[in-house]
Amino acid sequence: MSTALPTAVESPVVGSPAALRGHRLPLVLVAFTATAATLLAAGCSGDDPLTTPDGSTIVTSTTRIADVNVVAADRDTTRTCLAPTAPDDGQTDVARIVVTDPALLDAVCALGMGPKVTAVTAAAGSVPAYLGPQLTSVPTIGATPDASAATAASPDVVLTSPQSAASARAFSDARVVSVAPDADWQKRFQAVADGLGRSAAGERLLDEFRTEASKTGVRLDAAHNQISLVRFAGSSEMIAGTDSFAGGILGMIGIQRPAPQRNPRSFTVTDQNFKDADGDLIYVSFNGPEGQAHGEEVLRSDRWLDMGAPTWKRVLVVDDEIWYRTSGLAAAWLVLNDVKESIDGNSANF
């Protein structure tokens, strides 16, 4: 495959029910608001940014990329983290946490313990943006923090991983909890919950997610939907395997994958297997700016547009960081909600 996908930031736009009648496409995309469309059109009318009467710049979301709608373009990251959880019976609660590996922050966020994080021993910009201001505003003090930064953080628990364990040495008075970030995301989440004295809460939250994923599958008639997952990199495309983070969430929902995509491992798209990317609906994502540039080229190509899903406007852009490059319970809820927002379970009536 030699063309690319753009990263849009809008909900789906579809043809009329009459246009879809007679086709096996049991998916209906959620339409974007007229306000977002108006802002987008205004933003494209010139090079100058939109401004308020007093001259302040109006920040607008990208809702379409290469004529493809972006899912959750107006995502509110202030709502990513879940409600605070209580410690297990008899446990002394954690008051201050330092995290040495940003990959572990998702679990902290899902446990509602973000406000307890006093520092992250990583470079600036290492905290995933989807975690929102609760965690992106936490000081990042570098992998080898100096004495003053360590003193200011003053943790009673340091949450670390084998890869970032050296950073924990700056906090000699704190209890160290080590969790392997490359473990299965559900096991990693439970390990973090155990280490922070919230074993019961961790089990409950995972059970709540599994239950909601299953209910969502029933509502969406998931077993009769075949969804394709395509990721664009700088010069190639990958079809995400069932063992990918997003692939695993779709599996928990009960959504089917097209026959060529029912493999645990991801694989590269080539001229020979190009049409393996097709499905009832295709979720595409871009791995970085180069991936978006390549993706936009592919998404506009005749070869791509001749496939079934693109022909019927059944292609959506999703956030690559959330769907693939990170993983955890907080991200899992975002993926699940993206699916809910972009598929109508009653579409089989058309």
Notes on the structure:
This protein is α/β, with parallel strands linked by helices. The protein folds into two domains: 17-76 and 209-349, 3-Layer(aba) Sandwich (Rossmann fold); 97-197, Nitrogenase molybdenum iron protein domain (Rossmann fold, 3-Layer(aba) Sandwich), CATH 3.40.50.1980. The chain has 13 helices and eleven strands. The strands form two sheets. The protein has a seven-stranded mixed sheet with strand order 1-2-11-10-7-8-9, with helices on one face. It has a four-stranded parallel sheet with strand order 4-3-5-6, with no helix packed on it. The protein starts with 16 loop residues before the first helix and ends in an 8-residue tail after the last helix. Residues 96-347 form the Fe/B12 periplasmic-binding domain. This is Putative ABC transporter substrate-binding protein. InterPro entries: ABC_transptr_periplasmic_BD, Bact_iron-sidero_bind.
Key terms:
single chain, alpha/beta, 4-stranded parallel sheet, Rossmann fold, 2 domains, 350 residues
